[in-house]
Amino acid sequence: MRANLSWEPQRRRVALLSLLPALLIMAWLSFAPSNASAAPAELWTECLPGSGAGQCSNPRGIAANPENGRLYVADQGNGRVLELDALGNFIKAWGWGVDTGAAALEVCTPGSGCQAAPFGSNTGQLSALPMGVAVDSAGNVYVEDRGLLGNPSVRVQKYGSDGSFILMFGGGVNKTKVQEGGKVDSEENLCPFDPGDECQAGTIGNGQGQFGSWEIGSHIAIDSKGTATDADDDV
């Protein structure tokens, strides 16, 4: 019996067609530019434990500025705010005495050296457990300053993108107005209300401008109009 050789050319054509996609890919790769930019091996490096420049201790809340990609992190254990670029490179940190140890709000950079900030209730100083972070359209940074369960702070502090203190709000945060007495909530719950007002930790309450107790987490956001919203546990 003679073999049917009429199918041989057709089988060869099918085999060649099945190899065509692989051959085209190989050809494209061989002519691709050799200097094409490769993706970075990694976008983030590990945040090593510590209090130096670029180090952190229990980082909590994080927010990004959509205009420039800058990231802001509540460095909870160090009582400060970290600023990073979009690839995670350290730019600066701000907090109470983070540069020289002075009893004031300071900014530290990679060149100046950084240290942990002591917790407290002074103007611009973060209490224990700073948590949520948000950024408004002007680049200002809001930090949810919680405090410990037995020593709550329950206030939100607003900083400029340069780390400078702008204001805070929460129940009775304006120490000057509270001590003067007879002031309305809008004066007592915003600091400074007038130039020279002394600020303090907030108090838990359910009145206008006050916060209830905060659970652990990031509960703050800024809308397109610059309005800050914070979800507390009781109010």
Topology:
Layout: H1 8-31, E1 59-64, E2 71-75, E3 80-84, E4 90-96, E5 105-108, E6 130-135, E7 141-148, E8 151-159, E9 165-169, H2 175-180, H3 185-188, E10 190-191, E11 220-222, E12 228-230
Antiparallel strand pairs: 1-2, 2-3, 3-4, 4-5, 6-7, 7-8, 8-9, 9-10, 11-12
Describe the structure.
The structure is a single chain. The protein has 235 residues and is of the alpha+beta class. It has helices spanning 8-31, 175-180, 185-188; strands spanning 59-64, 71-75, 80-84, 90-96, 105-108, 130-135, 141-148, 151-159, 165-169, 190-191, 220-222, 228-230. Strands 1-2-3-4-5 form a five-stranded antiparallel beta sheet, with no helix packed on it. A five-stranded antiparallel beta sheet has the order 6-7-8-9-10. It has a two-stranded antiparallel ribbon with strand order 11-12. The longest helix has 24 residues, at 8-31. 34% of the residues are buried.
